[in-house]
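A quick aside before the break. I want you to see a complete sequence-to-structure record at least once, exactly as it would be stored in a machine-readable document. Don't worry about memorizing anything.
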Amino acid sequence: MQQPIEGVLEAPYVMEYTYRRSLGPVMSAFFTALRDGKLLGARTASGKLVVPPLEWDPDTGAAIAGLEPAAEEGVVTAVTWVSAPEARHLLQEPFAYALIQLDGASTAMLHAVACEALEACPVGTRVKLVWSESRTGSLRDIRCFVPVK
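That is the input. The structure line, written in tokens, reads:
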């Protein structure tokens, strides 16, 4: 094990969710649509499109009435670089994790962006969705996003 650098605090951290949750009607429809190669968002009473959808309006707490198709292109609003992907990552080559605000959406979703380097995917980059070849009804049904040339 590597010796810690004096004066630097370190703590191991693994982000995991070790529980299972029932999906309910909104998320069940969202994941079923992903399996079928479609992306859905939830329209709030005020007209905002929330992608991925939520069961409740984040501004008012009102129940979401319905789902509608969402765009498959959008803009990177925040980005970080993964230089050494682990087996659990979607992509096995270096990639960016980005918040992507899809066209017409009022929220951003976190997903992988396949690009050669962080400099190739700055904030403001237009990206488009790439579907996985095999889909099962999970967020991994979206393989990644790629910059639009």
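Two observations worth writing down. Helices lie at 24-35. The chain has one domain: 24-147. We'll return to this after the break.
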